[in-house]
Specification:
The protein has 1 helix and 16 strands. By secondary structure, it is mainly β.
């Protein structure tokens, strides 16, 4: 907008200065931003699947347009399975089982919604990362993972069932944090490397 006194406070004086405004602080000025009240929405941003917003401000105004619902059961046998799943642009699955043989990190950062259960069982991967996971519709079971030393779900907002973490001999880091309430049933036992 034009501001004639040069201080960008919208009062007027004798000279003209153009003031540029970025109300939401996302680095895009109000005239180029399709929603200057939300820092997660601006041209060129990556679409955040499942949030109901047009994060990339594409010209069509499509919400979640870069996202593909998978909606089926997902079984991860190794790191490459996770890479393939995320590489296809998926963000959800019905039920998820992670049961890997061999070392290597499993990164399912694209996965945001599991409609049913999450099972991490009999896995030998060094770590399992679900850093985009917001919702698990049913239970979470993490058990009998001889090689996994770290599991991360740092932005979880909702768990629909019980959580069981048991008999994970090498597990030393378990990050299940976020803004959810603890489930009615939480069982943690037999994890020799995990400190409370």
């Amino acid at each position: 907008y034009a501001d004639n006194d040069g201080d960008c406070d919208d009062s007027r004086s004798d000279w003209n200065l153009v003031c540029y405004v970025d109300a939401d602080g996302d680095g895009v000025l109000v005239e180029d931003d399709c929603d200057d009240t939300d820092p997660t929405v601006f041209p060129g941003n990556v679409e955040i699947c499942g949030d109901g917003k047009d994060n990339d401000c594409d010209e069509e105004g499509l919400v979640d347009n870069a996202c593909e619902p998978y909606g089926e059961n997902l079984i991860i046998f190794g790191p490459s399975d996770a890479e393939d799943f995320c590489g296809l642009g998926y963000f959800d699955a019905e039920n998820v089982t992670i049961s890997t043989s061999g070392s290597g990190a499993v990164d399912l950062g694209c996965l945001q919604v599991i409609h049913g259960y999450l099972r991490i069982e009999n896995s030998e991967s060094s770590s399992v990362t679900l850093d985009g996971l917001l919702e698990v519709g049913d239970y979470i079971t993490i058990s009998a993972n001889p090689g996994v030393d770290a599991i991360s779900m740092p932005v979880l907002e909702s768990i629909g069932g019980a959580v069981t973490v048991s008999d994970n001999s090498d597990l030393s880091t378990l990050d299940i944090s976020g803004s959810f309430s603890l489930p009615s049933t939480l069982t943690v036992s037999g994890n020799s490397g995990l400190e409370a």
